[in-house]
Design goal:
By secondary structure, this protein is of the alpha/beta class. It has ten helices and 14 strands. Strands 1, 2, 3, 4, 5, 6, 7, 8, 9, 10, 11 and 12 form a twelve-stranded mixed β-sheet that branches. The chain has a two-stranded antiparallel sheet with strand order 13-14. Strand 1 and strand 2 form a beta hairpin. Helix 2 runs antiparallel to helix 3 and helix 3 runs parallel beside helix 6. The protein is elongated, with a radius of gyration of 34 Å. This is Adenylyl cyclase-associated protein. Belongs to the CAP family.
């Protein structure tokens, strides 16, 4: 009898527990559904479809890095929508909890910023416009007038003003070249002004509204203290939503040189010094004789100097830019399938010769040594930057030739390119060879001046090149 009673009690308890769990899950589901169907969330969905969709569709026509950056924009706005839904189910956290809550959005912004780092790409202005504009999404971190940031609407406008500088560069560069880039730049501006600005103005003019009865934000668990090391690594860059940025400077520990001077001043001057005995003095040490053995010379001579050189490249990128990089000892490089809309970029080559048959838009020779370039025609300019001992020959026309921060440059001009404008800056040993006027068609060499005299006359400085004459 007692066993049956116990079994009945256990089954009753199990049913009560299952009913309790089911009611809790139903409450959670109801809260989530209510939050996702809130008018502000529905309006954000419509905003994403209208404005973010324009940016991604325009980027798809361009492809490459522009499309990758635009995908990050879509990801960041999607994360903001998820956070807006969670805010309606979460109590207002403290600064530490807010930083942890906004961590997914911060990661997307940092991802966009990392795309602008490293070697400057052809779409640097596109990437920079995206990275600067995404900081507008930080309006969601506004918690009041004492939080140290502008009101949400003002923050969106200020963030776009920083990004508009690079966005305007895209508009100017591609206004008469490619309408797809112009469409993308205009769509990006409309995304923030008026898009995001009007959305925030309509639904969150005073910042996000947190739930009064929702769950609390759980802070990230603290990592165990690391073991003592002789030199701790430098601190990582501060997060966009780092709570430490709100602390007054007096309450934060000193860093950098301030910490060094504080440590020095807190210790006796002679602490840490060691007494030097007679056997430690240089004059008494047997291993400090004033000669180098032959074996040591051989060891030193056998260690070659290693310079970092990237992989060689010789390719046409996206049908617009010929890239010739890190070619060493190649005397037969040839570009013959080119047109007037393409550019040629030569970087890090040594002891090589490149011939360009046909008309191209622009030629840039950067950080090359003992390199020869022969081209037919160029529409814009031929630029020589950071080079040593290079020879450039123009067989057709070139309106502009510029030499910057280079030493040892030989320019060969044809009869059709004698009207070229040659600009030099911080360069030396520049010689220009032009055809002679006689019937022999010999080349006449002219040395461009690299020394100047600046004289103050009649209220202004007059600059004239130094002329050397010898008897």
């Amino acid at each position: 009898m007692e066993e049956k009673l116990i079994q009945r009690l256990e089954s009753a308890v199990a049913r009560l527990e299952s009913l309790s769990i089911g009611s809790q899950s139903r409450d959670i589901d109801v809260d989530a559904i209510a939050a996702s169907t809130d008018p502000s969330i529905i309006a954000f969905d419509e905003f994403l479809t209208e404005y973010v969709g324009k940016v991604t569709s325009a980027a798809a026509k361009i492809g490459g890095q522009v499309q990758d950056a635009s995908n990050v924009v879509h990801e960041a706005f999607s994360v903001q929508k998820e956070l807006l839904v969670k805010i309606k189910q979460t109590k207002k956290p403290d600064m530490v909890g807010l930083g942890e809550f906004l961590k997914p959005l911060n990661e997307k912004i940092m991802k966009a910023i990392s795309m602008t780092e490293g070697r400057r790409s052809d779409f640097f202005n596109h990437l920079k416009a995206v990275a600067e504009s995404l900081t507008a999404l930080a309006w969601i971190a506004y918690t009041g007038k004492d939080c140290g940031m502008s009101m949400p609407i003002a923050h969106v406008e200020e963030s776009w003003q920083a990004a508009e500088f690079y966005n305007n560069k895209v508009l100017v560069e591609y206004r008469n070249k490619d309408s797809n880039h112009v469409e993308w730049a205009r769509a990006l501006k409309e995304l923030y002004v008026p898009g995001l600005r009007n959305y925030v103005k309509s639904h969150y003019p005073l910042g996000p509204v947190w739930s009064a009865t929702g769950s609390a934000v759980s802070a990230a668990p603290k990592a165990p203290a690391p073991p003592k090391a002789p030199a701790p690594p430098p601190p990582p860059p501060a997060s966009l939503f780092s709570p430490e940025s709100s602390q007054p400077s007096s309450s934060r520990p000193k860093e950098g040189m301030a910490a060094v001077f504080q440590e020095i001043s807190s210790k006796p001057v002679t602490s840490g010094l060691r007494k030097v005995t007679d056997d430690m003095k240089t004059k008494n040490r047997a291993d400090r004789a004033g000669f180098v053995s032959a074996g040591e010379k051989e060891v030193r001579a056998s260690v070659p100097s290693v310079s970092k050189v990237g992989p060689p490249k010789f390719e046409l990128q996206m049908g617009r830019k010929w890239v010739v990089e890190n070619q060493i000892g190649k005397k037969d490089l040839l570009i013959d399938q080119c047109d007037s809309k393409q550019t040629v970029y030569i970087f890090g080559c040594k002891d090589s010769v490149l011939q360009i048959k046909g008309k191209v838009n622009n030629i840039t020779v950067d950080k090359c040594t003992k390199v020869g370039v022969v081209f037919t025609d160029v529409v814009a300019a031929c630029e020589i930057v950071n080079c040593n001992s290079v020879e450039v020959q123009c067989q057709g026309t070139a309106p502009t030739i510029s030499v910057d921060n280079s030493a040892g440059c030989q320019l060969y001009l044809s009869k059709d390119s004698l009207e070229a404008s040659i600009t030099t800056a911080k360069s030396s040993e520049i010689n220009v060879l032009v055809p002679a006027s006689g019937p022999d068609n010999d080349l006449v060499e002219h040395a461009l001046p690299q020394q100047y005299i600046h004289s103050y006359k009649n209220g202004q400085f007059v600059t004239t090149p130094v002329s050397h004459s010898g008897g």
